[in-house]
## 1
Amino acid sequence: MNICLKPISEENFIDVFNLKLSKEQEAFVSHPIRSLAQAYVYRTQCQPFGIYADEKVVGYVMAIYDYDIPEYDIWHMMIDESQQGKGYGKAALKLLLDYIKDKPFGDSDRVALTCNKDNTVALELYKSMGFELTGNSDEDEVELALYL
C-alpha cells in the first residue's frame, strides 16, 4: 500500500470533510471542518494534509509553525474509523516528520503535539515514534515533544 500526504486543496477538501471517527474517539480529535477553518486562519504558518492510501483519503493531519516559541506542532491527526489498525497513522506521521525536517515555515528542531490522556492508542503511537511526555498539560490533554 502506497501511503502519501497530499495538501488539502479545492479538489480534495470534501473527501476530508467526510472522514469519520468512532463515537468514542470524537472527544479526542477535532473534526476536519474545524481544523481546516484553523488552517485558513493560520495559512501563513501551516499546511493541512490528507493522508492517502493509494488514491483513497484515509485520514487528515496538519503541521503548524509557532513563531512565538519557535516550534512545529502537529494538530488534529486522525484516521477514518474504517481504516484504523492498518499502520496508516504511523506511516503518515513519518512522512509528516520528514516534511517538518525541511523547515518549511521556520527554523526549529522541536516538534510538539497534544493528546487526550485517555487516548492510549494515539499515545502509544507517538511514543513509539520517539515523542516523550513533557510534563505540560491542559485539561485532559498532555503534551509530547520530539527533537529532530
## 2
Amino acid sequence: MKKTIALLLVLVLALGMLAGCGGSNDTAEAPAADSGETAETPAAEISVAAIETAYGSEMWQQVAEAFTAETGIKVNLTTDKNLEDVIGPAMQGGEFPDVIHLATGREAGLTEQFIKDKNIADITDVLSMTVPGEDVTVADKIAGGFTETSLTNPYGDGKTYLAPMFYSPCGLFYNAGLFAEKGWEVPTTWDEMWELGDKAMEEGIYLFTYPTTGYFDAFLYALMYTVGGPEFFDAATHYEDGIWDTEEAKECFDIIAKLATYTNPITPAQANDQDFTQNQQLVLDNKALFMPNGTWIVGEMAEAPRAEGFQWGMTALPAATEGGDCYSYTWFEQAWIPAGAENIDAAKQFIAFLYSDTACEIFAAAGAIQPVLGIADTLEGDNQMFYSIYDDGAKAAMGNFASYTAVAGLGTVREVFMDPVNSLVNGEITEEQWIENIKTASAQMLANIQS
C-alpha cells in the first residue's frame, strides 16, 4: 500500500511539472478585453530604424505605438535624417536593427551594400501572413506589380527581400501657374521640350534643374522605357552585352547630355543631401522650369517661399517621337530585415502591420502613401492630381538595375550612371567620356551580376 501511495504521489508531481512546462512559451495570453476577446501577446521587443524624410518622424512613433497596442510587441524606434550615420557604427559591430526603413538610391548606398552582400532576410512569407488586427493577408492589400520588381526581388530568384513602402509617381514637376501666365503648353515630345527651353531662356529662365544626381534614377528609368519600351529597359538594367551601343542607348545619352546644356548652372554646387532644397527652390522662384521629383515635394517645400501665382504641376517624361508613349516612373521606398537581426519573426509581424488600415491612415495623414489597393480614391488636392497621372495617359515604369557583387574599384549604379551628370553640366567631362566609363563599368557589373 505504501508503495502504491508513493507511486501515485510521484505521478501527481510529474504531471504537475509537465503542466508547468507546457505553460511556458514565447507568447503570453493578455487579459481578456471588455468585449471578451483574448489576444496572444508575443513576449518580445524589436528595434526599428527609419529614415526621417519630409514626412517627419511622428508618423513612425504613432505606427510603432499602434503596433504595440495590437500585438504587445514593444518597439524601440530610431529615426534620423542621416540614418546611415546613426546605425552604421553599431552594425559594423554586429548589432543590427530588426527592421530598417531605408530606400535604395541614397548617397551613402547602405541598402545597396546589404543587397550586394546578400545580408537581407527573405520576407516572402510575409506576403501570406495575415495583417495584424485584420482578416486579410499582406498580399491581398498590396497593389499589383509592387512585389514583382527588382526593387523588391533584387536577385531574380522569385523571392521577396524588400517590402514596398511609400510610393510616388515620379515625373517632371513645374509651376503650372507660370505656364498659364505665359500661355505655354507642357511639352509632349523632346523636340517640343527643346523649343520651350529656347523660348524660356529668352526670358532668363532655364529649362531644367535637379535636386541631386540621385533623382536621375527615376528619370533614367522612365527615359529608357520612353525610347525603347520594357524590352530595352530589361536589357539595359541587366547590362546586356553591347546594349550601350544601340540606337536606344545613344538616344538616352543624347537627351541627358543635351538637357545638361539647358540646366541652371548653379545646380551641381547645390546637388547634395544638405543643399538640394535650394535646387528645388529654383522652380518655385521661376529660375528653372522643370525638375525630376516625386509627390513628396509638396510637403518638403510646404513652407518655402514661391513666386506669385505658383501652382504645382506634374507631367510624365515627353515621348521620344510624336504619338509615342510617355512614361512616369513609380518610385517607392523599401523596408527590410537585416539577415543578422535577432528578432526576425517579430520583425516580420511589424512589416505586415505596415499595410494595415491603421498604419496606412497614419502614414497618409503625413503625406506618405502606401502601395495598397484603393488608397488613391481617398486622396485630395495635389495628391489626387499626382496619383491620377496614370489615368491621364502616362504609362508606369517600374524596376531598377540588377544587383551585382561588390568589386574593388567598381562604383555603385548611381556613381557610374548618374553622378557624372554634375560633370556634364559643369563641362568637366564630355558625353563620350561618360559613355565609355559606363561601358567599362557595365561590363564588370555583368560579370558580377547576382542571380
## 3
Amino acid sequence: MEEKLLKIFKLADSLNEKQDKVFAQIEYSANNSKKLELAIRSKTDYSYVEKCEVHLTNDSLIRWDNVIKLFEDYIRDTKKIS
C-alpha cells in the first residue's frame, strides 16, 4: 500500500504542474475512522470534478491501481473536464 500511496502523491504533484484546469487534493484523518479523501478539483472555482472517500481498514476493498489510473488519465486528458 505504501508504494501505491507514494505514487499517488507524485501523480498529484504532477497533475497540478501539467494541468491548467484541475488539481489534486489529498486529505487523511488519522483518527478512529482512518479516512483518506482523494479529489480532483477545478482550479477556476474549486468545485469537485471527482471525489473518493476511503476508510483504510485491513479489509478495505480499495483498488489502488484504479486510483492511480484515474490520476494518470487526468494528467494526460483535458477532455474529461467540462
## 4
Amino acid sequence: MPLISFALALVLALGGTPLTAQAPSYPTAWDPALLNRPDVKAALGHLEREFPQQVEEWIRIAQMVGKSTQEQARGAYVKAEMTRAGLQVRVDSVGNVTGVRKGTGGGPTIVFAAHMDIVHAVETNLAVRRDGDTLRAPGIFDNSSSVANMLAAIRALNAAKVVTKGDLVFVATVQEELGLRGMQYWFDHNPKPDLLIAMDGGLGPVSYGALGIYWTRYRYTSDGSHTLQSRGKPTPVLAMADAVQRIYQLQPPALPNGAVINVGQVHGGVIFNGIPQDLYFTVDLRSSDPVLLDSLDRQIGRIAQEAADRARVGLTVEIEQKNRAGGTERMLADARRHPLVQTAIDIQQQLGVRFGMPGAQQALATGSTDANIGVVAGVPSIAIGRSYGGDQHTLSEWAHWPSALQGTKLTLLLATTFGDGIRPVRAFVP
C-alpha cells in the first residue's frame, strides 16, 4: 500500500477528522515517544555535545570558495568527511557528492539534499565574523549551514549506532543557484527515491511545492551606425525599451498562486557615439501554476517579437532555464496531506521552532529549492530550514548560529521517523 494511502487509512481508522473547517487536521508520523528511544536519545545528545565543533566546521565550509560551478573545494571536503563516516560515497560528473548510509532493507529510500554552492564571486571576501549569537558572511546562511548540518547528522547517527530499514542518502548538490542543475542531474541518473528532503531555507514553514522558474534572455540586433548617420535607422534600443515597458504592464495575480515577473539584466552597446548592434535583457518569470507560467511565457515572447518588428531589428530568444512548476495550493492538496509535511511541522513544534507571527502558515505550496525537482517528478518532497537567518544573496548575509542545532535535530528526527517506514499516525491536534 502506498505510504500516503496507508497513512490516511490509519487516520480514518483512528477517527481522525478536522477539528474545524478553518483548522484541518493532517496525517502525521511524529510520535514524541521517539525522543525516549535509547539510540535516538543518544544521537540527540551527541549533537548537543558536539555542537561547538559543528559551528566551527560550518565556518570552515563557509570560508571555502563556493561559487556555482566552482564548488570543488567544498565537494572534496564533504567527500572526505562522508568517507570517514563510513558512507558509500561517489562523485558524479557534475560534482554532486552522494553518500549512502545503507539500511537493513524493507524501508523507504530517503534523500537529504544540501546544496554546496553560493552566489558570490570567487574574489568575494568570505571571512566569517562572529557577532554574539550571529555569524556574518556572504553565503553563511545560504547554504553553508545546511552542509554542516548534514555532516553533523551523519556523525550523530553513527555515534548512536542508529539502524534504519531504509537507505539514507545524503546528497551535497552543485549549481543549485543556477537553476537546480545538480539536483536535476542527480534525478536524471539515479532511481527515484521514496522521499526527498531539501535542507534549504529558514526554520519555520515547510515548503511542499515547487515554484516554476523560467529564465529567458531576449537579444536584439541591428547593423548599427555612427551617431552622425543614425537618424531614422533601426535601433535595438527602441525595441528593448518598448518590450520592457509592456512586460511590466502585465499584472498577473500575486504569489503564491499567481506569478512574479522581473527584468534582472540589461546589457549592450560599447560606445557613446553609435547605434548598438547587440542589446539584451533578461526575464525572471516565476509561478507555482504551470498553466499560468506557460501562458505568461508565451505572452512575453509575443511582446518581445512585436517590439522587434516595430523597431525593424532582429530578435533571438535564449532560454537559460525552465524549471517546471509544481502546482497551486489546490493542485497540491494531496501533497499537503502526505505525512512528510505535517511530521516536519510537528517535529519543529516539539523543538520549539518559531513559525513567525500568530496565524502564519506552517506549510507553503511553493518553494525554490532542490525539493522542486522531486515535486515535479511526483516524489513526496519538502524543504526544511537550517537555522534562522537572512539577507541571503547579499554581502550582509547572516545566520543565527544557536538555531542550527534545532535544524540538525530536525534532520535527524526525520531520518529516524521515516527510516523504518511509516509509523502509526493520528490527526494532528494543535
